[in-house]
Write a structure and sequence with these properties.
Layout lengths: L4 E7 L4 E11 L2 E11 L6 H19 L3 E5 L7 H19 L5 E4 L1 H9 L6 H12 L9 H23 L5 H7 L8
Parallel strand pairs: 1-4, 4-5
Antiparallel strand pairs: 1-2, 2-3
């Protein structure tokens, strides 16, 4: 029987950071706890935005006590300055989580969309619609599409964990070696 766990999902951003928290109580049993955004456009400079991200993510961790955090990795764009700022936002969110000794799992945007919708190039609206069905929610406010992206990271991580727990599949070589010591030859 899988251990109940709470997962915080984060979609980092420089103007809006989205987050969603789910509670997982068993195979295919995830329940939405909270969904929201941190609006950052109101802050006067990038450094103040980073401080707001750090403080709010720590508050979320302290309030909801997640066991794990799933975060969307930055996608590669043409604008180097935007990438740098997005990377900083992600790093600050990660530092806030790590300051509370919670493990972090990073997923590429394409992998998250693929896990949720079956299509790696799905739109934000498609991801939100599928999450609504997966979690049995009535509706998500369309203005919170960044929040549903954060929620999608959490649900993607839930699916990854359930796959490993229920099928015996592994997600990396270290895990494979640990589970299959007789199948590995040492040279």
């Amino acid at each position: 029987m899988p251990i109940p766990r709470t997962i915080l999902g984060i979609d980092p951003g420089t103007n809006v950071l989205g987050y969603g928290i789910i509670h997982c109580s068993g195979p295919n049993k995830a329940k939405l706890i909270v969904l929201g955004v941190i609006e950052l456009a109101k802050y006067p400079d990038h450094y103040t935005k980073l401080r707001a991200i750090f403080d709010r993510v720590q508050q979320l961790v302290d309030e909801y006590k997640p066991n794990e955090v799933a975060i969307e990795s930055p996608f590669y764009g043409k604008n180097v300055q935007s990438m740098l700022k997005l990377g900083r936002a992600q790093g600050v969110a990660m530092a806030a989580v790590l300051s509370r000794s919670i493990p972090i799992y990073e997923y590429a945007p394409r992998k998250i969309k693929l896990a949720i919708t079956g299509v790696g190039s799905a739109s934000k609206e498609q991801v939100a619609a599928m999450l609504k069905n997966i979690l049995g929610e009535k509706d998500f406010d369309q203005k919170y599409l960044d929040a549903t992206d954060g929620l999608a990271a959490a649900v993607c991580h839930f699916f990854q964990g359930e796959q490993v727990n229920s099928d015996g599949k592994t997600s990396n070589w270290e895990e494979f070696i640990k589970k299959n010591p007789k199948r590995v030859r040492k040279q």
